[in-house]
Amino acid sequence: MMDLIARLANRHARVMVLCAVVVAAVAAFIGAPVVTSLTGGNPDFVTPGSGSVRADDRIGAATGIQSDGGIIALVDTGAPVDDPRTREEVEKVAGLMAGDPTFADVLTYYRTQDKTLVSKDGQRTIVVGRLKDSAEDHYQDAVDRLSDRLDGDAAVKLGGSEVVGNQVVSTVQHDLERAELLAFPVLFLLSLWIFRSLVASALPLVIGGLNVVLTLFGLRVVDQFTPMSIFSLNLVTALGLGLAIDYSLLIVSRFRSEMTVEPDIDRAIRVTLHTAGRTILFSSLTVSAAMASLFVFRQRFLYSMAVGGLLVSASALLVALLVLPAMLRLLGRHIDFLAPARFRRSLEAPENTDGGWFALARGVMRRAPLVAIGSGALLVLLGLPFLKVAFTTVGPSSLPTSTSSRSVADTLRADFPADPLESVQVVVAAGGDTAGAQPRMDALRDRIAALPGAAAVTPAVVLNADTWLLQVTPREPGLSAESQTLVKDVRALSGPDEVLVGGQTATFVDLEDSLTGRLPAAALIVFLTSMLVLLLMTGSLVLPLKAVLMNLLTLAATFGILVFVFQWGHGAGLFGTEAQNALDATQPVLLFAMVFGLSTDYGVFLLARIKEARDAGVGEAESVAQGLGRTGRVVTAAAVLFCVALGALATSEIVFIKQLGLGTALGVLLDATIVRALLVPSLMRLLGQWNWWAPAPLRWLYERFGLREGGAPPLAVEKS
């Protein structure tokens, strides 16, 4: 395959580059609108078929009213609730809601005399707008209309689940623009420092931009068939830039290196594809497998990330193998235009075995036991805080304090008896006549009221012939551990009638249960595919097993730092946030896939060079030293650029996007430094020839299907 691509690049470079320009233009035209067409919010995190969804669906079918969301207007005129000015403002807001066809019902204190709608000091009140269950596709439009009509009214702030979703979408779109503006200049300057050439440093960004455009096009196509989450855009832009830059660095560095050996462009393209191109193929397979594991999960947020990740990795591979070699063929010797020759030769010449990375490599070889113990212990130490992790989900606290939904939520929690949207909805399917079911409902209400987490329980209300509803006010805020226990306790109550529990906290409990139940299957997919790819590349069973262990240590350290920063709040101010007391529940799943895939990605870079040296006859220890020395600069440069691309997400105003950006950047940085520069080579030095051991069936598999450099002999594998 690499021979075919090399021939195409050498013979038809102009046509391939021209085709790439045309495809990019079409993809940009079609794909760009996806940035404003995707939505996000509570629906991204619900678990299809769960008890909470069934409860909410039953309420919606019986009443026509959405049960798991709504819009809350906080009214604060500066006058008490019984003042005419406050009542006039409330009636104004209620009238706007009632006049909108998306609203099914509007609750005010003056209509219901419900004191939970009034603040404890009597100075503020809320208007609760409940939405039609059948108008789900128009909720965000309703939020926009109400926001426009209340624009400039300082006495009213809008909150509630649908406003949270609306403000999350607008914040994500704003964050994407800012992240791109911040990342691109920094990436270009770093590339310029790495390559010392204006032309060479521009190539990774060009390839990265092309990758993002193609992926947005793919996302737009998929969105036409199944709704995608807007949060996948963050992954597409950051991971698209990062992978393309990684692959470009590997290709361009190897091409420049080969050009210093013999200035034959055709030969350099051919060798580059047989070495770096092959490494990129393995890398793309590992990243794709890791992202594909997210399809195991049922939440739209995660399968959208799976789609985005697969599109990104496939596009990055195609662009790096088809477009970049053609561009290098056209540039030829001009790739080093304005690059000082002495810098280029000292950095790219393959015969050079001097410099800091080779010195580090040989130092690690000399002190392998000490380095292995020290670096491993450091990763374990960094991972210890993860033992105390707690989880939450997307809500008002995920948004900055400047947003109205965050302000309303904080005010309700501090100054009101309860948040009406945090109540636990208990739906009872009770057949038979109403009179016969009433005693059972009263008994159930008494049993729920006796639970330690219940502050109050409303009398059972008949929704239709066979559906009853009880609303439970929890003693502690929604999503708290006590409220989650309350949901589980209510579900554990047995009786003749089916009891379903819905609401915000129940939705989160179902999310956690779903993620926990499906994580082992996703992990197994990642482990097995990563090991298979590394086996086909190296012919070893030991190296894939060691790679899995290294990746797990990297993940543990990454999660430990995230707990330290975002859950405990140490250094959170550096990222424009405060202690969250928990991590987002989807972070372990998403970061597991991303960090594991990317860690294997860098492992492939290192192992490919070690194997190349070993196959050329270099000894065990020296091949490890040469592999680290050759890849140290490229892998570190790729990691730094990747950290900038993904670390830009840490500037997001949405907390869990900050966690995703910082977590991925940390994982990449830890892997490219402590793991790849210290732990992996020291362990390889200690294991010696055992690194390449595999049982007879796996040796046969490698010899039959393994992918090797063109013309290279089969790998000699040590026998047990």
Automatic annotation (TrEMBL):
Q: Which domain of life is it from?
A: Bacteria
Report the transmembrane regions from the record.
Answer: 202-222, 228-252, 273-295, 301-324, 370-391, 521-543, 550-569, 589-610, 631-650, 656-679
What is the protein's membrane topology class? Multi-pass membrane protein
Domain Membrane transport protein MMPL: residue ranges: 48-367, 399-695
Q: Where in the cell is it found?
A: Cell membrane
Keywords, A to Z?
A: Cell membrane, Membrane, Transmembrane, Transmembrane helix
- Family the entry assigns: Belongs to the resistance-nodulation-cell division (RND) (TC 2.A.6) family. MmpL subfamily.
Q: What is this protein called?
A: MMPL family transporter
Q: Which organism is it from?
A: Kitasatospora purpeofusca
